[in-house]
Amino acid sequence: MNTTSSLAFQPVLERIAEEIERTPGRGRAADYIPALAACDPRSFGMAVAELDGTVYGVGDWREPFSTQSITKVFTLALDLAREGDELWEHVGREPSGNPFNSLVQLEYENGIPRNPFINAGALVVTDRLHSRTGDAAGELLSFLRAESGNPALDFDEEVAASESAHGDRNAALAHFMAAYDNIDNDIPVLLDQYFRQCSIRASCADLALATTFLARHGIRADGTRLLTLSQAKQINAIMLTCGTYDAAGDFAYRVGLPGKSGVGGGVIAVVPGRCTLCVWGPGLDERGNSVAGVAALDRFTTLTGLSVF
Amino acid sequence: MNTTSSLAFQPVLERIAEEIERTPGRGRAADYIPALAACDPRSFGMAVAELDGTVYGVGDWREPFSTQSITKVFTLALDLAREGDELWEHVGREPSGNPFNSLVQLEYENGIPRNPFINAGALVVTDRLHSRTGDAAGELLSFLRAESGNPALDFDEEVAASESAHGDRNAALAHFMAAYDNIDNDIPVLLDQYFRQCSIRASCADLALATTFLARHGIRADGTRLLTLSQAKQINAIMLTCGTYDAAGDFAYRVGLPGKSGVGGGVIAVVPGRCTLCVWGPGLDERGNSVAGVAALDRFTTLTGLSVF
Amino acid sequence: MNTTSSLAFQPVLERIAEEIERTPGRGRAADYIPALAACDPRSFGMAVAELDGTVYGVGDWREPFSTQSITKVFTLALDLAREGDELWEHVGREPSGNPFNSLVQLEYENGIPRNPFINAGALVVTDRLHSRTGDAAGELLSFLRAESGNPALDFDEEVAASESAHGDRNAALAHFMAAYDNIDNDIPVLLDQYFRQCSIRASCADLALATTFLARHGIRADGTRLLTLSQAKQINAIMLTCGTYDAAGDFAYRVGLPGKSGVGGGVIAVVPGRCTLCVWGPGLDERGNSVAGVAALDRFTTLTGLSVF
Amino acid sequence: MNTTSSLAFQPVLERIAEEIERTPGRGRAADYIPALAACDPRSFGMAVAELDGTVYGVGDWREPFSTQSITKVFTLALDLAREGDELWEHVGREPSGNPFNSLVQLEYENGIPRNPFINAGALVVTDRLHSRTGDAAGELLSFLRAESGNPALDFDEEVAASESAHGDRNAALAHFMAAYDNIDNDIPVLLDQYFRQCSIRASCADLALATTFLARHGIRADGTRLLTLSQAKQINAIMLTCGTYDAAGDFAYRVGLPGKSGVGGGVIAVVPGRCTLCVWGPGLDERGNSVAGVAALDRFTTLTGLSVF
């Protein structure tokens, strides 16, 4: 990794935004629920947050969008902080090598999901956090508000209800793992917790700030330690190898940073010890990642040299 | 990544060797062929090579061992240098999420292996390099001799013959992909090429040196360019996400460097822009990676801060 | 098939019962719910019903037991009678070639179960019958009472509750198929219907009589037609190829009759145009079929020549 | 099974031939090798052989065609006659529930094919027969000549060579099973034996006659016993449950007889204790069975009542 000691992020962001603006074709917004389908696929925002909380942004960087799977990173951090390595007896840390909802591998491996970022794994993490806190979704929301400094962050109950109405695959996953004794809570309770987490709306600025604890190796915005250095590395490593569905290898090559995407079109990324990023563009590629988001991160690491490889 | 500007590698290596020496339990050497089973599982060597070719070492770092799957990295580089992105139409870049020999995913994905480091993928790369050069194994050997500066490197014909005698799974993979038109050469010719490559014997010093072109972003020892910057990044990314069989996630977390292991007990790793490493310890864990090798790399990145995350 | 024109069934049954009595080892009763685990694995009953409703029996042939998956045959008949071939767009007629609960094949084939006798398929049939009648379990119970002439047949609510408490795999299957739009009813409603059906208690005599409509090519006990000749053949064929979990090939060879087993230890069988049989022995083999039940049917077809092959 | 004591087969065959003649659409001939692709899809022949060797026929019933997978039945009989139940430790007797060439199930079940009629299973049977006789293909040819009374039957070396040139999937299967120690002979030797067997040309009359030993419960044309009664039943049962690729359930329902199809467009069927049939029509459905062949057998059992169910 080549670090440029005093980078001016703002001109970089503006250059990227111009390039993205000129790029034809941005994929299609997710259409399985109305709230996502309604997004303008030409929306684009990008933010960089430095370790001290300074944020730079461009485009729609202050507009809230549906965070969806991006929240899996924070739920993982919150549970890992509480229970430590015991978590890894209930969910693995290896890439899945299959489309993100597949039940096959889950059956082959006796109800232990491959990693915390496939849906099955995220359900397990939520289940465990809920058992420890009594309100997994509330814990997550409090954390995001505190780290982003934005008390207005909230659930989108309409999105949560839509997800629930299309929630049969997740219900199947949850019941399937319950059959292997890998789920503690009642399934409807768990699913409600899960869908509410995914429904949280936040902007690029909010998410870039909320992610900085990973760039600070586990230290929260208020200076307290959430994760050990080792745990922070653990999460970054999982983001790099498993953060973008079945395109993690591609993302590792093109972007070369730990990252996590969501079907709402957001992508977060971490430059350990340096800064965090969040990009939003609702149009997705066929593997469920934001077309503009991955392109913008690709350009960012190329322009700044802030890549792992 | 925290870089220490003037690291003294030798004391670090010696400290690691002492720690490994005191560690009980080192796994079991591969026993499917006699030459590997005969290795002393207590052997241990480690070398670091800087970009300028300076090498530091400890223990059995000058003793040749069977490189096995480590050669997949070099074959990939040699073919990628020749045909460029066309290669990616014949082999993917995503983690496999399954034990390294599995046929399931290969069938599901119509004969296109997930990545160049599972056996199926390495067979495709060898096949393509052989079609382009007429002697894939010879090309590889020449390259390793040149980069390591060691003209004594050679095939181990006894090991190659042993592999061939136990080669039914690889033969099945090759025929299976041929049925999908993803293999060009005759299968016996291809298998001979493949097993001879895996049989090459080299020491930690040799392999650390031979890997430096990846730390130099594609530049060979003689200063000529083998790979574009982008291709070098590509290979590093694939090493990080797919280099250690079904333990890539674990390796990414513990070591945090692009790496590639072989069942001969060797592991190579790359610190982009800085140095390369090779460790050898014949005892393997249940996923086929060197127990001492992964432990030593783990300690190295912890002691030096030379990790990606 | 060699038919013996005037068979005396009673002596055959008594000879079989004696042989079974002398046989050591009868497998283990299902133990996933208490009511099944409490069964004496040495219980044994067997009944033969002729087309005119004459019944012969031996041992515990009048003792009620938990019918479990045997009811899948009757639910299939009731739904097929109502909707005809349209059913086959929602469930297949081919053997599954996998343990009976596997999700793999269901995913591979887009939520269409392979046949009506694996759990996924039986859930689809129950779902469709329930949509057509508003009370699938009630329809089934009425049918069994009418055909057996035993108005005392009833659900075992304790067993239904136990099944429900261990119902996560079936819930997973149902939600999974719902995600493919292959389930109409709410999942809790469907599961309640399904578990109540499986809980019905009936004796060998009851079940042999209730099955005679299949030996009469679709004609019920009261002389009315439930199924067309073609539909009756359809069900017999599915019983032969899919009626005994992953042992259908073995059953076809040993018994050579259309049959269906349940984990309660019952097995029914059909000699088309001639008679029906029901055997009960709670001890199961490793594939979930009654050890004594299959052995008794094997002896019956050997002694009488009433086999298909 | 309703048996009609003195059936006049000839008028039945003629009626069926007329109906088939009027049927539009007959599927497509296999086109993976030239010799099969060259067949006229409108060809049609059908023969019935009684237990005493009397043969009735219609259409192209005396024209030789490529027997292909039909030979699997005879090879199985020849090996089972020699080694008995030991064979079942190397190949199963259960339906495969997957397209006939799938490697997945083979991996899941450690190299033991599900049944002798999928390609993997047939390779195992051929391998074992070859080990016992030194010339599996020669044994098969002698048997077919003797049973059909036609000394002109022979291999079609051109077809065998074509199969061999497209034999990568079968080579993959053979090597894969060899890796599980379930193949004894050298793979090229085994494949040569296998492809030569499949290449034998015979007419409907020849094959109906050659199959009569199964209708006679194991007795050959010369009155000697090849199989025990039990072994003959075993083969009939496997034909019913596994004889028509992934359409065995459908075939059982429509035809209701033990049968075996080949991609050359032939289908044989057995009415135990009564007669045998062979139909030929080169046009195949999407599951690889002769469209006209299955339709003709369907009509035959409907018209004569000679069905199992």
Question: What's a quick, concise take on this entry?
Answer:
The structure is a homotetramer of 309-residue chains. The first copy, chain A, is of the alpha+beta class. Chain A has helices spanning 9-22, 34-37, 71-83, 104-108, 119-133, 136-148, 157-165, 168-179, 187-199, 204-215, 229-242, 248-254, 291-304, and strands spanning 45-50, 55-59, 65-66, 201-202, 259-261, 266-271, 275-280.
Task: Report the CATH topology name of chain A.
Answer: Beta-lactamase
Structural class of chain A: alpha+beta
How many individual domains of chain A?
A: 1
Query: Total number of helical segments of chain A?
Result: 13
Oligomer: homotetramer
Mean pLDDT of chain A: 93
CATH homologous superfamily (4th level) name of chain A:
DD-peptidase/beta-lactamase superfamily
The biggest chain-chain interface is: A-B, 35 and 35 residues
Note poorly predicted spans of chain A.
Answer: 1-5
| N- to C-terminal distance of chain A | 6 Å
SS elements, strand count of chain A: 7
Strand content of chain A: 5-15%
Radius of gyration of chain A: 18 Å
Helix proportion of residues of chain A, in percent?
40-55%
Overall geometry of chain A comes to globular
